[in-house]
Amino acid sequence: MDPELLVSEVKRRTCLLLLAAACLLAAGFAAAARSGAFLPGCISWEAGAITGGAPEEPEAIVLEDRELRALSGGETAWETAPGIRVQSFLWCDINRDGAKELLLLCWRRGYYGESRPFWVEENDEGWSQHIFIYAWDGETMVPRWMASDLGREVVSWRFHPVQRLVLTDREGAVTAWDWRTWGLTNIPLAEEVSFAAVGDNLIHRQIYSYAFRHWDGDFSPLYEDLAAALRAYDVTAIQQEGLFVEAPEEYASYPLIGTPIQVGEALAEAGFDLVSCAGNHALDFGAAAIDRTAAFFAGRDILTPGIQPTTEESFVPYVLLEEQGIRWAFLGFTASTNGHRLPEDTPYVLHTLDDEGQVRLALEEAREAADLVVVFAHWGTEYAPEPDGDQRRWAQNFADWGADVVVGTHPHVLQPWEWVTGKNGNETLVYYSLGNCVSAQTDPACRIGGLAWFTAAKAGGQCAIVDAGLRTVETTEENGRYGIIVSDVEQDK
Q: Which domain holds residue 74?
C-alpha cells in the first residue's frame, strides 16, 4: 500500500476510535450523572420507615437507597419517580388542614419540573435540591407543591409546631418556612427558650458535715459540674428537699430534714431561677422555715413555687416569669406533709394536692395568665421505679386542666417520662420522677437522677414545646466528698 494512503488510513481509524471512546465516555458520564454520581459528597442520605397512625393514612412510608415508597395493603401504592434522589422526608400537617402531608427533601437534575417559567430560556441540567409536597388521597400520593431549586444546600430539616418547617443549610444558617395559602413562604424565626430541672436536693448529714469540715461551710464545690451543665439552658430549676434552718443544732437529715442555709447560697451561685419547695418535709420545722426559705430566695430573685411566707394574706396559686417574650407560670404541689398539719391561720404557706377543686382552679388561672404552665409535683411512692396510680391520675388531671409540663419528684429514683393527652387534645409533657439531684442514700438507684429539659417557642401568639429529653445526673462520693455529674447521653422514655 502506498505509504501516504497507509498513514491516511491509520489517522482515519484513530479518529474513529477516539470518537467512539469519546461517545462511550460521554454516555458513561451521562449514565453516572443520571444515577447521581455527581451529587455533592457531603449529603447525609437518610433511611428509615414510619407506620401510618390512622385509617386514612398509608400503611407505611419507607425510605431506602435514596428512593421512597408508600405502602397500602402490603403493596407499594406509590414510589418516587426515576431520577429523584430522596435525602430525607417528613410526615406532618404542613398546611393545617387536619391531614398529614409527605414532604421530600430531594435532588433532581434541572432547576424546574416538566415546565419552567416563561422568562427562563434554558433549564440547567445539573443536580439541584428541592422540596416536594404530596397528599395521600387514600390510594396514592398526589402532588401538592414542588419547589424549584432551593438556592441553598440544606443539610437538615425538622417540623416545628410553632415555626413549622425549619431548615439548616451547609453554612449553618437556620430559616423557617410556613404554608401560606399555596406553597411555602419564608417566615421570621421564633424565639426559643430552653428549660432544665433536676430532682431532690437532699443534703444528708454526711454531705453537710463534709462541707463544714473541708469547705468552711461553702457548698458551691458540690454543684460545680452541675452548674456548668446548666449554663446551656435559659431557665433552670431544682427541688429543695428540706427547708432552711440557721442554728447548727437544727441541722438534720432524718426523719426531719433541716438544711443549712448556706446551701441556698450555693444554689444561687449555681444560677438557679427557681427552687421548688413544696415537699413532704416542708413543714418539718414549721412555718418559720418556710418564711426563712422564701425570704432568702426572694432576696436573690429566685422563685419558690409551692410555698408562701406567712406575711402574705391569701393563697397565691402560681409564680410568673418572663423570659424572651414567653410568659411562664410555675406551680408547686405536694401530696404529703408527713403528718404535719398546715397552720390554721395561714394554710396557704404550703401548697398541697388535698383540695382537688383548688388545684384545678389554680391551673385554670395559670393557663389564663401565661403562655406556658409548668407544674412541680411532689408525689408517688418512694423507691418505686414506675409511677403509681395516683401519679397517673394526677398527670391526667394536670393535662386536662391545661398544664404544658409536669416535673415530678419524691420517689428518690428515676421514673419514666411521656406525653399525656388532655381532654382538649393538648399534649402535656410529664416527667414522673427525676429522682435525686444529690443525696447520701446508698442504694445505687438513688444515686442516679435525671435532668429534664425541654425547649419552648412562641410565634404569632402561639407557644409550644418543640423539643424535650432527659439526661442522667449521678451522685458521686470519694473519701467522703460528694459530687454531681451530668451525663451528655439522652435517656429513652
A: 48-152
